[in-house]
Amino acid sequence: MTLRNIRNNYLARGFFDDAGDRKARPFQIQQDNRMLTYLLIGINVLVSLIGFSRMNSVGDSMFFFSPSEVSAGRNYQGMLLSHFAHADGTHLLFNMLTLYSFGPVVELGLGALSMLLIYAIAGIFSTLFVYYLHRADPRYRALGASDSVTGIIFAAIVLLPGMSVYFFFVPVPIPAPVFAVGYILLSTYLMRRGGGHISHEAHIAGAISGLLLAGLLAPGGFGPLLHRIQNLLT
């Protein structure tokens, strides 16, 4: 998920305004509604920096989630640390910029505790899903906050379905509901195809968690999202 100017699209302006959904209420983003977002970014950066040093020097596996090792009763700490550690600086930067862009929307819209709940449950559900799929595969290892961050993205889509998502290689804004459907479909296809070094199954689990939890926790439920989808179809 390569994002471009999404912060300028709605965070920096301080309100949400989209031509496709003029009935959307103003959504003010205040500086003090980013504390949890900053805290999560700080934890990810700290654990990742420690992980970079340890993995480069001794190849420490404690920062990786290996379902087969957990199944054998080993490396339980990897189930936790892998959600904050990253493969390299680019991986870390990408996830943290995404969290910085979408986190404040969820933090303001639902509150810090609800955002933390979504972040944590998205990670837990993805861990269980990945464990179920790969517990017999000794070659499978995963790390990164992408599952939890994806949960935050989809929660933000439920709260602000009229926003647009930008990509480096796509010159036009993508309506959030269209992005959500396309993301799930593409991730499912790539997961079924297999190969590569991206845990698409973890992304899917995180996305579904964020979508459902935000719909259950938001005062308007799924109403704004359904209204936006209706506008796009008519």
Structural write-up:
With 234 residues, this protein is mainly alpha-helical. The chain has helices at 6-11, 35-58, 67-71, 77-81, 89-110, 112-134, 146-159, 176-193, 200-217, 223-233, and strands spanning 164-167, 170-175. The radius of gyration is 18 Å and the shape is globular. Helix 5 runs parallel beside helix 7 (146-159) and helix 6 (112-134) runs antiparallel to helix 9 (200-217). Strands 1-2 form a two-stranded antiparallel ribbon.
- Straight-line N-to-C gap: 28 Å
Residue share in β-strands: under 5%
Helix content range of the residues, please?
55-70%
Mean pLDDT: 85
The largest beta-sheet arranges its strands as 1-2
Radius of gyration: 18 Å
Q: How many strands appear in the DSSP assignment? A: 2
Q: Which regions contain 5 or more consecutive residues with pLDDT less than 50?
A: 1-29
Q: What is the 3D shape? A: globular
Instruction: Report the total helices.
Output: 10
Structural class: mainly alpha
How would you name the oligomeric state of the polypeptide chains in this document? single chain
Q: What string gives the helices and strands in order?
A: HHHHHHHEEHHH
Q: Biggest β-sheet, characterized?
A: 2 strands, antiparallel
Please tag this protein with its features.
single chain; 234 residues; mainly alpha; two-stranded antiparallel ribbon; 10 helices; 2 strands; globular; disordered N terminus
Helix and strand arrangement:
Blueprint: H1 6-11, H2 35-58, H3 67-71, H4 77-81, H5 89-110, H6 112-134, H7 146-159, E1 164-167, E2 170-175, H8 176-193, H9 200-217, H10 223-233
Antiparallel strand pairs: 1-2
Helix pairs in contact: 2-5, 5-6, 5-7, 6-7, 6-9, 7-9, 8-9
